[in-house]
Amino acid sequence: MNRFDAMSKDALNRVEEIMNSTKLNEFLHRKEEEEKKKTCILWILAIIGAVAAVAAIAYGVYRFFTPDYLEDFEDDFDDDFDDDFFEDEDEKDEK
């Protein structure tokens, strides 16, 4: 009888080990799936970041090499008005 009791205990231990290993395997597979999701999201964010960086560099180069036409316009506009114009008005007001 003791022999059968020992065998049944060994069998129960093995069954528990198998159940624990399957639970462990399920847990590990869940971890692997979560890791896959995280790496996928990380890759997507890295690609978006790279595209944004390239766009920012392209915009910076564009702004650097594009001439500023407004400065030329302001220079021309300032030349049209001399200080003499305003001095003439002051002289008329004094008379």
End-to-end separation: 137 Å
State the assembly state of the protein chains.
Answer: single chain
Helix content: over 70%
**Largest β sheet strand count, sense and barrel closure:** none
The stretches of 5 or more residues where confidence is low (pLDDT under 50) are none
Task: Please state roughly what percent of the residues sit in beta strands, choosing from under 5%, 5-15%, 15-25%, 25-35%, 35-45% or over 45%.
Answer: under 5%
Report Rg. 41 Å
The overall average pLDDT, rounded, is 76
What is the succession of H and E elements?
HHH
DSSP summary, beta strand count: 0
Q: What's the shape?
A: rod-shaped
Structural class: mainly alpha
How many DSSP helices? 3
Walk me through the structure.
This protein is an all-alpha fold. The protein is built from 3 helices and no strands. It is rod-shaped, with a radius of gyration of 41 Å.
Short description:
The chain has 95 residues and is an all-alpha fold.
Which key phrases capture this entry?
93% helix; 3 helices; mainly alpha; rod-shaped; 95 residues; single chain
Helix and strand arrangement:
Elements: H1 2-65, H2 69-80, H3 83-94
